[in-house]
Automatic annotation (TrEMBL):
Required for selective autophagic degradation of the nucleus (nucleophagy) as well as for mitophagy which contributes to regulate mitochondrial quantity and quality by eliminating the mitochondria to a basal level to fulfill cellular energy requirements and preventing excess ROS production. It holds the Pfam family Peptidase_C54. The lineage of its organism: Eukaryota, Fungi, Dikarya, Ascomycota, Saccharomycotina. It is an enzyme of class 3 (hydrolase). It comes from the Eukaryota. This is Cysteine protease. It comes from Wickerhamiella sorbophila. One of its GO terms (molecular function) is cysteine-type endopeptidase activity. It is found in: Nucleus; Cytoplasm; Preautophagosomal structure. Residues 44-328 form the Peptidase C54 catalytic domain.
Length: 388
């Protein structure tokens, strides 16, 4: 009964949440700052928010077969919303897919910025280039970045069964695998927790550490834990720095058991798109009005003090200059306040053994191979089953 009450509470909270009111002070959307007089939101800020892709719960897509040992499609949240039910599997991700949807939102906005630039703005209708991005995320079995493909790779990357909640680490590894399989002109680097290793990142972006080699756009995914139960105040400036960066593509995270797509902030509150607002599935031949529903001017807020500390931050680095700028900004805060730390490579591993009256220490340099193989395991320190 506790699960039912929790689901009902989240639905009521979503339906009755008032839009935030402006206060005096700059307001930020994906690295762009807008002055706010406290009387009304800046028009350019709202237009910027509307231009961000919002992917959310969908209903009525091709069935994702259930697993004998996995959850049942009969979920209380889905029943309360009147969602269609198929006993053979899932035809909606209501109640379990929000971390996947926020991960898709992060990736979709990265692709939009990569192809159309950060300055692009939505003009009221979906353009051809944008549609080329959105079709990758359609709720179809053969769409390269569909929820079907995330679920398929989730079983490989994190042992997740259909209908189970994903955490940040599983979403990150799914994004990397699916982008690679899709043949997109984008590389993906996954951090070692808060640690980014420059040599490994440069190798992903260029194929080597040679400064003259051609740079491929790289999506940097950082699985972070900025506290225990909520974000520790010592990391508030670090959290702001993630969204202040001109290279940011947003953050997937939120409250416990609830994931949002964060794109901005003002003072000590985050702004987000909420995936918990269901809509009919996006399919081939979809009506244009449904396609245009990926844009919204509505603002939602979450105080820093109520934010779950586990999150997935993304950055798009389109050039070496982007990397140097991003590195400078991330490292500008005192070490104790940083959300991300950038070093050349992992620290050597020190192992010790006792021999008679002496302790012998051996230093083993970390290799790029061991780093790449450990990325997924390193991210597993993040709570990987707390979002839906």
């Amino acid at each position: 009964m506790a699960t039912s009450s929790s689901s009902l509470q989240r639905i009521v909270q979503m339906l009755w949440t008032n839009e935030p009111t402006p206060t005096i002070g700059s307001v930020v959307c994906l690295g762009t700052s807008y002055p706010c007089n406290g009387d009304e939101w800046p028009v350019d800020f709202i237009h910027d928010v509307e231009s961000r892709v919002w992917l959310r719960y969908r209903n009525g897509f091709a069935v994702i077969p259930k697993h004998p040992d996995g959850p049942s499609p009969l979920k209380i949240g889905a029943l309360l919303r009147g969602t269609s039910i198929d006993l053979n599997g899932f035809v909606s991700d209501i109640g379990w897919g929000c971390m996947i949807r926020t991960g898709q939102s992060l990736l979709a906005n990265a692709l939009m910025i990569s192809r159309l630039s950060r300055e692009w703005r939505y003009n009221g209708s979906v353009e051809a280039i944008e549609q080329d991005v959105l079709v990758l995320f359609y709720d179809e079995k053969d769409a390269p970045l569909s929820i079907h493909r995330f679920v398929e790779h989730g079983s490989i990357a994190g042992g997740k069964l259909p209908g189970e909640w994903f955490g940040p680490s599983t979403v990150a590894t799914c994004i990397k695998a699916l982008v690679s399989e899709s043949g997109l002109d984008l590389a993906v680097y996954i951090s070692d927790g808060m640690n980014v290793y420059e040599k490994a990142l440069l190798k992903v972006a260029t194929g080597s550490s040679d400064e003259t080699d051609e740079w491929q756009s790289v999506l940097v995914l950082c699985g972070l834990r900025l506290g225990i139960d909520t974000v520790n105040p010592v990391y508030f400036d670090g959290l702001r720095s993630l969204l202040d960066s001109p290279q940011t593509v947003g953050i997937a995270g939120g409250r416990t058991a609830t994931s949002h797509y964060f794109y901005g902030y003002q003072n000590d509150r985050l702004f987000f798109h909420d995936p918990h607002d269901p809509s009919p599935a996006l399919k081939y031949g979809v009506d244009r009005s449904l396609l245009e529903s990926v844009h919204s001017r509505r603002l939602r807020e979450l105080p820093f003090t109520e934010t779950d500390p586990s999150m997935l931050a993304g950055f798009i680095l389109k050039s070496r200059e982007d990397f140097e700028s991003w590195k400078t900004q991330m490292m500008s805060l005192p070490a104790s306040n940083r959300a991300i730390n950038i070093t050349d490579e992992p620290a050597p591993v020190v192992s010790c053994e006792i021999e008679e009256d002496f302790v012998l220490c051996h230093i083993h340099p970390a290799s790029d191979t061991s780093l790449s193989e450990s990325n997924a395991d390193a991210l597993c320190s993040i709570d990987d089953g707390s979002t839906s």
